[in-house]
Specification:
The chain contains six helices and four strands; from the N terminus they run ααβααβαβαβ. By secondary structure, it is of the alpha+beta class. The termini are far apart.
Length: about 190
């Protein structure tokens, strides 16, 4: 597909076929995603591949529990808008997708968010180019249980930036209407 078509096809997908995603394919997309630009070519990103629905459900439940606790402690928390679904025991923040890739890096690295967001964008485009659907699910990043973090290989010095679900989409939703870009000024010779 050409670049314009890729941009149209790269949508947030939340409904997947039952078909699993081969781990080798996930590794291939990850490798390609590390071609993303990054500050000082430091390549600080790290990845955890979760190709196991039971583990994904555990991560979902852990994140929901922690987000609900935050809402209870501070009703002004941004997660308040998701309170009803977070309190629903059967709700899975990962939409029962077949696979999850956690993109993370050193929590004290100044450009972590930008570098990982660029890498995540490459990852999502690489997946779309292969007919896969993805969705960055920030609600799935709130893991605090030390045992679960250890199981995932996430040490205390690392921060999850982008939990991205991936699978074969049931359908590709249309792109939402976009406003015209706001160009504040054009300076020409």
């Amino acid at each position: 597909m050409d670049y314009g078509e890729l941009l149209e096809k790269r949508r947030s997908v939340r409904a997947f076929m039952e078909k699993g995603v081969p781990t080798d394919l996930l590794r291939e997309i990850i490798k390609e995603s590390t071609l993303a630009p990054n500050s000082g070519n430091n390549q600080v990103w790290r990845f955890v591949i979760v190709n196991n629905r039971e583990m994904m459900k555990r991560i979902s439940d852990e994140s929901k529990k922690n987000l609900v606790a935050r809402i209870d402690a501070n009703p002004e928390d941004y997660a308040k808008r998701y309170e009803n679904i977070l309190r629903n025991e059967s709700y899975n923040v990962f939409y029962n997708a077949p696979a999850l890739v956690l993109l993370l890096g050193p929590r004290d690295y100044k450009n972590l968010l930008v570098d990982c967001a660029l890498c995540a964008s490459y990852f999502m485009n690489g997946a779309a180019a292969r007919g896969l659907g993805t969705c960055w699910v920030n609600l799935g990043a709130v893991i605090q249980d030390p045992a679960l973090l250890e199981e995932l290989g996430i040490t205390p010095d690392l921060a999850i930036v982008a939990p991205i679900i991936i699978g074969y989409p049931r359908s590709i939703p249309p792109a939402p209407k976009r406003e015209e870009p706001v160009i504040l000024k054009v300076i020409t010779p």
